[in-house]
Amino acid sequence: MEIITSNKGNDKITFKGHMFVIKHEGKKYYTWRCSKKSSLNCPAILHTSVHKTDPVLKITHHEHPSEPAKIEVAKAIIKIKETAKCSGANPSQMYAEVVSQLDDYTRARMPVEETLKRTIRNYRKKKNPIDPATLDELEILVSHQSFDIY
Ligand SMILES: [Zn+2]
């Protein structure tokens, strides 16, 4: 199990190749639903402690296969955004650095690079200065992806 933070600032939990989003913060435990609840009406439900530990699947059935590579991709994008927040590096460099840490299978599924380069080219055509240190820049890049886990 791993906790990742989405671009909306909401935590998501990855568990066995599936991603879960918060459904209810109870006093004794938190309830998480599959991130594909809305798109595929997937019924899977996970409980954790209020400290977001000790995951227990309450409804184990998913309406779809697990997608570990997609989760790795989502984590990589979040890592790029985190890097953007605290460094002034060029987005292309940040991308290259994060991607270099991925395995081949995940790297092949990274959707960002072309969008990233296109955006940079467009910026330069307009001669707008790029400030890659701002999170907004990366938000724009990420929101161009048709990425249903967001
Ligand atoms: Zn599911």
UniProtKB/TrEMBL annotation:
<protein>
    <recommendedName>
        <fullName>FLYWCH-type domain-containing protein</fullName>
    </recommendedName>
</protein>
<dbReference type="GO" id="GO:0008270">
    <property type="term" value="F:zinc ion binding"/>
</dbReference>
<keyword id="KW-0863">Zinc-finger</keyword>
<feature type="domain" description="FLYWCH-type">
    <location>
        <begin position="4"/>
        <end position="64"/>
    </location>
</feature>
<dbReference type="InterPro" id="IPR007588">
    <property type="entry name" value="Znf_FLYWCH"/>
</dbReference>
<dbReference type="Pfam" id="PF04500">
    <property type="entry name" value="FLYWCH"/>
</dbReference>
<keyword id="KW-0479">Metal-binding</keyword>
<keyword id="KW-0862">Zinc</keyword>
